[in-house]
Design brief:
This protein has a single domain, classed as Alpha/Beta hydrolase fold, catalytic domain (Rossmann fold), CATH 3.40.50.1820. Helices cover about 35% and strands about 25% of the residues. Strands 1-2-3-5-4-6-7-8-9 form a 9-stranded mixed sheet, with helices on both faces. It is globular, with a radius of gyration of 17 Å. Bound molecules: glutathione. Its EC number is 3.1.2.12.
Length: about 280
């Protein structure tokens, strides 16, 4: 693991690191904020998964998570959204290929060789965090934005014993029913719709996967709300399954980091409460 940059912030350390990923078969960059409490012992870990077009850097620059992370003593880990590089499959569109990994393991060519973000986030990255940071791996939670909200929800639903809590900003909750997923899933996963359902939060819940509770914040002026996000699909699935969903509709907010940063501290406090329980 190589250190790209280190900056002291809010009494902790904002670092950017790179390593050769065995899953993605390329160098992967990620950001970690280590809070000041790490000096006294291992801290719980909160993964933030970003949305389409993002790297580790968008949330680091615009997400405003450090003050709350330092207050609550939570380590924040921000991976990239896909493998990247010249020899790696890509697409000119912003919602396919590099920057659009959808947190799944692709099974169809040309994506299958490198696009393994599910295994990267759930297995390889934690194995790298554990020995290199002051992390208490018995206390992990996950959240994310848009495509990263989809990643957080699906990963938590599939691994309820690994993540203590899950939340999302403006998540894609039912990708198999909206254009983003209907474009990406056949490309990455082929025509096997049973496989698509394993990467769809609403479908996973319908198929019996469970978490105790979910926190979602959603702007009502989000430009993707009606076509791509449709939080009512998650609401219906949670109601039927008895999952305690808090869906906060936020008047006036759009899809951007102006929205995310406004509610970032609420989400970190919510996770911190559950990580310390
Ligand atoms: N570039 C896309 C929008 C993609 C987009 O909004 N991406 C969100 C995540 S889904 C994001 O966080 N973008 C990066 C940023 O705002 O810094 C478009 O032209 O419609």
């Amino acid at each position: 693991m190589e250190t790209i940059s280190i900056n002291t912030s809010h009494g902790g350390i904002q670092g950017v690191y790179r390593h050769d990923s065995a899953e993605c078969r390329c160098p992967m960059t990620f950001a970690v904020f280590t809070p000041p409490q790490a000096a006294d012992g291992p801290c719980p870990v909160l993964y933030y998964l970003s949305g389409l077009t993002c790297t580790h850097q968008n949330v680091m620059d615009k997400g405003e998570y450090r003050r709350a992370a330092a207050e609550h003593g939570v380590l924040i880990v921000c991976p990239d959204t896909s493998p990247r590089g010249n020899g790696i499959a890509n697409d000119e569109a912003y919602d396919m290929g590099q920057g659009a990994g959808f947190y799944l393991d692709a099974t169809a060519d040309p994506w299958a060789k490198h696009f393994r973000m599910y295994s990267y986030v759930t297995r390889e990255l934690p194995q790298l965090i554990e020995p290199n940071f002051f992390a208490d791996m018995t206390r992990q939670s996950i959240f994310g934005h848009s495509m990263g909200g989809h990643g957080a929800l699906t990963i938590a639903l599939k691994n309820p014993d690994t993540y203590r809590s899950v939340s999302a900003f403006a998540p894609i909750v039912n990708p198999i029913s909206v254009p983003w997923g209907q474009k990406a899933f056949p490309a990455y996963l082929g025509e096997d719709r049973a496989l698509w359902r394993q990467h769809d939060a609403a479908a996973l819940i319908e198929d019996g996967h469970r978490v105790e509770e979910i926190l979602v914040d959603q702007g009502d002026k989000d430009q993707f709300l009606t076509e791509q996000l449709q939080p009512e699909a998650l609401e219906a699935a949670c109601t039927n399954a008895g999952i305690d969903l808090t869906l906060n509709m936020r008047p006036g907010y759009d899809h951007s980091y102006f929205f995310i940063s406004t509610f970032m501290e609420d989400h970190i406090a919510w996770h911190a409460q559950r990580l310390k329980a």
